[in-house]
C-alpha cells in the first residue's frame, strides 16, 4: 500500500521526468496517480516516451512500498508489451529493487534508473 507521502513523491517524479525529457522526445505521456491517460497494450505505465506514432520506452516509477513480489506481475506485463521498460527508483532503494528483479528473473528484461532528491541553499 502506497502512503500519501509516497504518492506525492511518485507523482512529482513523473512530472519532473516529463518536463525534462519533453525536450528530447516528441511525445511524453504520463499516467500519474490513478489516472489512465495513455494505454500501451492494456497497461498504463507511469511514463511513455514516443513520437511519430511509435512508442520507444515505458517507465514505471516505484516507491519503497511497491518493492515486493506482488508488483512483479505488473512489471512482467510491461515487459510483455515488447517495448523497452525502465523502472525508476530512489537511489536509496536501488539495492532492494536489484535483489527483487534478480530473484524473479527480470534483470535481463528491464533497465533500472535512479533518482535523488537534492535540496540546496535552503
In words, what does this structure look like?
By secondary structure, the chain is an alpha/beta fold. It has a single domain, classed as Rossmann fold. The chain contains 3 helices and 5 strands; from the N terminus they run H-E-E-E-H-E-H-E. It has helices spanning 4-21, 69-80, 94-103; strands spanning 27-30, 47-51, 54-62, 85-90, 111-115. It has a 5-stranded mixed sheet with strand order 1-2-3-4-5, with helices on both faces. A hairpin with a 2-residue loop joins strand 2 and strand 3. The radius of gyration is 14 Å and the shape is globular. The mean pLDDT is 94.
Structural class: alpha/beta
**Averaged pLDDT:** 94
CATH architecture term: 3-Layer(aba) Sandwich
Could you say what the CATH topology is called?
Rossmann fold
* Strand line-up in the sheet with most strands: 1-2-3-4-5
With helices defined by DSSP (H or I, 4 residues minimum), what is the helix count?
3
**Count of spatially separate domains:** 1
Please compute the radius of gyration using only Cα atoms. 14 Å
As residue ranges, the low-confidence spans are: none
The counted number of beta strands is 5
The separation of the N and C termini measures 32 Å
**What level of helicity do the residues show?**
25-40%
Can you summarize this structure?
The protein is of the alpha/beta class. The protein is 33% helix and 24% strand.
Question: Which features does this protein show?
Answer:
single chain, 122 residues, alpha/beta, 5 strands, 24% strand
